Amino acid sequence: MFKRPNIPFAVRVAVSERMMLQRGIPPHTVNPQTQKPLPLIRRLLLNLHDLFGEAKVHLDHDPALVNRPCNSAGRYTPDANNPDYLIYRTAANHDIKTRVSGEHGQHSDLALRRKRKRAERKKQRKRSTRKLQSANRWPPKGTRKLCSRPFQRRTRDVSRTKS
Asked: Domain range for residue 66?
């Protein structure tokens, strides 16, 4: 597991503006009195206020970083700071998606992580047992298996039968 990268303000603003455009709300980019561009932090706060009001919001990776492929250098695919794979959610909705259930009744992010890890362990266990079986094979490969003795046939004992 790698350290979660910091998300710059420019990316956060891009996510909030994308969400506003999806809902048909014009994003805040310039100050209406001075017609100068707003600072990034001010744009972000205004956009989030228009989207969620006073509710506490979290920036969520979708899909979660723990469920994305990662190379040895710590780079995720898709990139962790890609605005197309980030979304703002209320704190309660983010908690539900992460721990309880995902969107549309799917597994939560943590449940998907546990499921993936369980499948990897199972695959690793199969590989290791297969190697052991081929190394400790008995009888050695190429030899014939000895025939087992057949079951003993019982004959009917006449002396034990009741007369």
From this structure: 9-113
What does the pLDDT look like over 38-62, one tens digit per residue? 999 999 999 999 999 999 999 998 8
Extended strands (E) in the chain: 57-61, 86-90
Q: Are residues 86 and 11 in contact, defined by beta-carbon separation less than 8 angstroms?
A: yes
Cα 9 to Cα 14, 39, 42, 79, 135, distances in angstroms: 8, 10, 10, 16, 57
Return d(Cα 94, Cα 48) in angstroms, integer: 15
- Let me know if residue 151 belongs to a domain: no
Q: What is the pTM of this model?
A: 0.66
Task: Give the helix, strand, coil percentages of the chain, each rounded to 5.
Answer: 45, 10, 45
**13 vs 92: CA distance, rounded Å:** 21
Determine, yes or no, domain membership for 137. no
| 3-state secondary structure at position 115 | helix
Q: For the chain, how many structural domains are there in total?
A: 1
